[in-house]
């Protein structure tokens, strides 16, 4: 396979993943609304998980296909990128105000999940028991987030939602489920095809470019599957919704570890390379840790702090590509 063909496969895979993720989020969101779930809960569950679906599909396909470095590298690279590049670039464009709950609630979840991931990976494998532990943890975290979201729903929003659901007849309800279900299933199909094409292209690209699957997974694949998070965070920043931008990046990192590593490890044990254990996982943990003091200084990510995050990502890439 020639280099242009491999690059073309990666590009096609990314397009299919983006389209499939968009369809799945739209379809699942409509289904949730039809079932009477509040907009706040949809945003914190369906949409948050939906933006991580490309990583889930790619990591699962890579792990089952015998490319563990791509499976793990996809998650680790995405988490490093979400903090160091996405938040760094967003803060460089416009300063991001930090909501107190992000420091007290979301960041601790992310950091603890990152620490547990590093500890469990040190023996060189994420087995099914550890994968199951992550999945259960994700369920508990989601239940906690939903309970908080329900408490924060206003009386007007709840009344409006109850009225909309009660006004529908049986036929209308059935139609309201059929179309979103078809859209969601179409999105899943695109995700599966796109994930397979992207993994095949990435493997060939690594071989032709003389790069290891670990490097490709941590850079090209991670950057590609992180595009939904990148778009969401940058748009929120430009709209002066800094707390949404930061919460999206942190929430995506939580779902990447607990959901993607958990589900993938539950399906098939994932070997973790010594290089990943000795270097990349610690970079992931370090970027998570450095975010806390930057957020707490003035409860604001300034342009200078954004520049520091971007420089840390540049330093990581220099170390990674230099090895």
How does the SSE layout of this entry go?
Blueprint: H1 3-34, H2 39-50, H3 53-64, H4 68-93, E1 96-97, H5 100-121, E2 125-126, H6 128-152, H7 155-166, H8 170-209, H9 213-225, H10 227-238, H11 242-267, E3 270-271, H12 274-296, E4 300-301, H13 303-322
Antiparallel strand pairs: 1-4, 2-3
Shape: globular
The total count of strands amounts to 4
Helix-strand pattern: HHHHEHEHHHHHHEHEH
Spans of at least 5 consecutive residues whose pLDDT stays below 50 are: none
Description:
The chain is mainly alpha-helical. 85% of the residues lie in helices and 2% in strands. It has 13 helices and four strands. It has helices spanning 3-34, 39-50, 53-64, 68-93, 100-121, 128-152, 155-166, 170-209, 213-225, 227-238, 242-267, 274-296, 303-322, and strands spanning 96-97, 125-126, 270-271, 300-301. The strands form two sheets. The chain has a two-stranded antiparallel sheet with strand order 1-4. It has a two-stranded antiparallel sheet with strand order 2-3. α6 (128-152) runs antiparallel to α11. The radius of gyration is 20 Å and the shape is globular. The two termini are 26 Å apart. The model has no long low-confidence stretch (mean pLDDT 79).
Which terms summarize this structure?
mainly alpha, 13 helices
Give a summary of the structure in a few sentences:
With 323 residues, the protein is an all-alpha fold. The protein is built from 13 helices and 4 strands.
């Amino acid at each position: 396979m020639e280099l242009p063909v491999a690059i073309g496969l990666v590009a096609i895979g990314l397009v299919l993943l983006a389209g499939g993720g968009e369809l799945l989020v739209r379809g699942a969101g409509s289904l949730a609304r039809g079932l009477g779930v509040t907009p706040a809960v949809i945003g914190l569950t369906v949409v948050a998980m939906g933006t991580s679906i490309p990583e889930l599909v790619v990591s699962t396909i890579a792990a089952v296909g015998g490319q563990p470095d791509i499976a793990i590298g996809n998650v680790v690279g995405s988490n490093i990128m979400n903090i160091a590049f996405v938040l760094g670039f967003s803060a460089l464009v416009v300063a991001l105000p930090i909501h107190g709950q992000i420091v007290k609630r979301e960041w601790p979840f992310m950091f603890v999940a990152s620490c547990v991931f590093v500890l469990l990976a040190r023996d060189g494998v994420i087995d099914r028991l550890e994968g199951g532990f992550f999945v259960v943890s994700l369920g508990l975290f989601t239940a906690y987030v939903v309970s908080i979201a329900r408490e924060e729903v206003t009386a007007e929003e709840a009344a409006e939602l109850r009225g909309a659901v009660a006004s529908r007849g049986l036929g209308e309800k059935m139609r309201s489920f059929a179309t979103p279900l078809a859209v969601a299933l179409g999105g899943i199909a695109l995700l599966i095809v796109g994930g397979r094409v992207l993994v095949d292209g990435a493997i060939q690209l690594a071989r032709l470019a003389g790069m290891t699957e670990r490097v490709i997974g941590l850079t090209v694949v991670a950057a590609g599957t992180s595009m939904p998070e990148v778009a969401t965070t940058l748009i929120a920043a430009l709209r002066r919704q800094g707390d949404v931008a930061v919460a999206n990046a942190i929430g995506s990192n939580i779902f990447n570890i607990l959901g993607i590593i958990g589900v993938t490890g539950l399906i098939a044990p994932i070997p973790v390379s010594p290089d990943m254990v000795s270097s990349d996982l610690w970079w992931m943990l370090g970027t998570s840790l450095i975010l806390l003091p930057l957020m707490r200084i003035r409860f604001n990510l300034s342009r200078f702090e954004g520049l520091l995050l971007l420089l840390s990502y540049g330093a990581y890439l220099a170390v990674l590509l230099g090895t």
